[in-house]
Amino acid sequence: MTYEVLEPGHVLIPNYYFFNQEQQLLFYAQDLEPDSRGQSRPAGQYVSTAWIPGNFLINGSILVAANITSDISVVAHHFHVREAVAFNVR
Hints:
With about 90 residues, the chain is mainly beta. Helix content is about 0%, strand content about 50%. It has a 4-stranded antiparallel β-sheet, with no helix packed on it. It has a two-stranded antiparallel sheet with strand order 1-4.
């Protein structure tokens, strides 16, 4: 995911949600990069990557939702795309 921070001062966490073809949540992953964990991001463009281990998913269609949330006691959603990408596992 490539995203741009327009307003500095927010602790942002990219999130990825993986669903099967029945729309059941399989798992989710967060980008908790050690260098920026708990720190606000200055304005600029960022790239977040989710790596899935080989042989982790079973055969079928996978749908990925992408979010950016704040790391605060009450989670704030800054960005959400329900169907960011889809792929088939064989």
